Amino acid sequence: MDAIITAGGTMKPTDPLFALTGVAKKALIPLAGQPMICWVIDALAHSRIIDHIIVVGLEPSDLNHPYPHLHFTEARGGIVDNVFAGLDCLQKINPHVKNFLLLSSDIPLITPDIVEGFVEECGSQEAELYYAMVEEKTMESRFPASRRTYIPVKGGRYTGGDIFLVKVSLVVRGNVELAKAATGARKNYLQQIRLIGWSFIIRFLLRRLTVHEAASEVSAKANFDGRVVATQYAELGMDLDKPHQYEIIKAHLESRQAQTIKE
Q1: With 70 as the cut, is the pLDDT of residue 202 above it?
Q2: Which of the residue ranges 74-83, 151-160, 232-241 would you say has the lowest mean pLDDT?
Q3: Nearest 5°: phi and psi at 33?
Q4: Structural contact between residues 87 and 168, judged by C-beta atoms closer than 8 angstroms
Q5: Which domain holds residue 123?
Q6: Is the model's pTM score more than 0.70?
Q7: Res 201: pLDDT
Q8: 190, CA 20 to 30 Å: which among 105, 179, 184, 205?
Q9: Rounded Cα gap, residues 44 and 201, in angstroms
Q10: Mean pLDDT within 153-165
Q11: What's the CATH code of the domain at 233?
């Protein structure tokens, strides 16, 4: 299996993370001795399931990473366009690719075991898209100060993870405009569900849908087979967006390094 990392985000001088780190390219925020994205690359490279890794939005000169199957391609704009850029690059390297992992560059707490574990959680991999979501109790037990935004559904509250298992066929035939609208609203779940219709909105707000039922209806509306993975790995939902999250993640990585040195 191969992986695509989206890393095209650029911060403005007014962004609190820019003020804190002094780095414009978000993927290059320094954490425990190396750029943030390198922790993600390390997790993929040291797993037993990943071959090629495509980085969208950076250049080789931005990183000094030794992984031999690391490739770079330019960003094209929004998230959906960048996925196409990454897939175009990947298909040139591996024309027979059937599916791939799609990750953001800002989940540096993932590990090789988490990468492998998420793929195992996807089970048969017969669906076209698997999307990680973390239940509130899982996230809060691991990162009680994370202050994530949770989506209320029947049976619990969930926050999104920044990893997907995607079939190439879905990207090729997918509803590009709907995908762009959904990703443009990804930080606002009410805006997302408006894309689906009033019946869905009413049942959603009354919490008559489980997270899996909601995912099934959304994917049916978009004409693909998509499934939620209620993952046990809180790290997949611990993306770095705000200064307090930077401090949490930095402390965890430094603690991990110290433990490695002791061992």
Answers
A1: no
A2: 74-83
A3: 95, -5
A4: yes
A5: 2-262
A6: yes
A7: 64
A8: 105
A9: 37
A10: 94
A11: 3.90.550.10
CB 211 within 8 A of CB 155: yes
CB 90 within 8 A of CB 2: yes
Are the CB atoms for 162 and 107 separated by under 8 Å? yes
Q: How many structural domains comprise the chain?
A: 1
Record the tokens describing residue 80, joined without a space. Answer: 């959906």
- Which pair of tokens denotes residue 53? 């890794």
Beta strands 30-31 and 129-135 are: unpaired
Query: Scanning the structure block, which residue is given the tokens 């980085």?
Result: 55
Three-state secondary-structure class, residue 56: strand
Tokens of 55: 């980085």
- State the Cα angle at 52 between 26 and 248, rounded to 5°: 35
Residue type (1 letter), 129: L
- Which two structure tokens, joined as six digits, stand for 106? 């800002």
Contact present, 153 and 204 (Cβ < 8 Å): yes
The amino acid present at 49, given as its one-letter code, is: I
Of 64, 23, 25, 60, give the one whose Cα is nearest residue 42: 64
Residue spans of alpha helices (H) in 94-210: 112-121, 136-142, 168-173, 176-184, 189-194, 198-205
The strand pairing partners of 69, in sequence order, are: none
Dist CA 110 CA 122 (whole Å): 17
